[in-house]
Amino acid sequence: MANVSRPLIGLLVATVVFFALWIVALRPSSSSTSANGGGQGLGAYQSAINEAKASAASQNRAAAATGNTVSSAASGASDRSAAATTAKPATAAKPATAAKPATTAKPATAAKPATRTTAKVTAHPVATPAQRRNVVQRALAEHKVLALLVYNPAGSDDQAVKQELGTISSHGGRVVKVAIPVSEIANYPVVTTQVQIESSPTLVIVDSSRQAFTIVGFMDSFEIAHRIDDALSMR
Predict the structure, then answer these.
(1) What is the crossing angle of helices 35-86 and 6-21, to 10°?
(2) Which of 23, 177, 219, 234 has the greatest number of beta carbons closer than 10 A?
(3) Is the bond leading into 201 cis (omega within 30 degrees of zero)?
């Protein structure tokens, strides 16, 4: 009903009034009336009928003039309303995901410097008294520097000095190192005639000219190397 225009409502009202007047004033009477009486009844309502017809005609003309415009405007408004109701708003585009920064490459691990290994030069691996004596005699005959350690196998300082002597360089074979138990000292008269062995540990160093000197008690590798260098410098 909200969409029915007013001119159309007026036309409907005029039509209803016209049919009401038709039923009341113009329908045939059940009793016979005279021509004069009928004329008088129609004449009494003729003006109302004419006004109803004129009103209906004016309503029709008004409806014809404005009907298209009103209905078109209403139709356009209705269409826009329907379009506004049904059209869904466009979904907002999601913002682009920020690109993850490239993973920083880890710096290459620095190569560890090669571990410096100091090769331990052990004393002559001679197992028997006769072998040890032969090594000493050959070193003296070849005028090499002899480092002869007289030690007690049961003494802690003696074992420590023996290990220190084992770390000393042989200088390309120019130095011969031998460790002998104190019980074998009588087998080396060439040494005992020059130096006196009274205790252990005692290191006897003989240079290339067969001059001997001793270091008594505990001594580290630095002191032993220094004394051997001195013997090497002697001519």
Answers:
(1) 160
(2) 177
(3) yes
- From CA 141, how far away is CA 123, in angstroms rounded? 19
Question: What's the rounded Cα separation, in Å, for the pair 12 and 120?
Answer: 130
For the chain, give the number of residues.
Answer: 235
- Break the chain into its structural domains and give their ranges: 6-26+35-80, 129-233
Query: Position 192: which residue type?
Result: T
β pairing state of 202-206 and 145-151: antiparallel
What is the C-alpha separation between 228 and 161, in angstroms, rounded? 15
CATH architecture of 129-233: 3-Layer(aba) Sandwich (3.40)
Give pLDDT tens digits for 186-205.
999 988 888 989 899 999 99
Which residue in this structure is represented by tokens 């691996």? 125
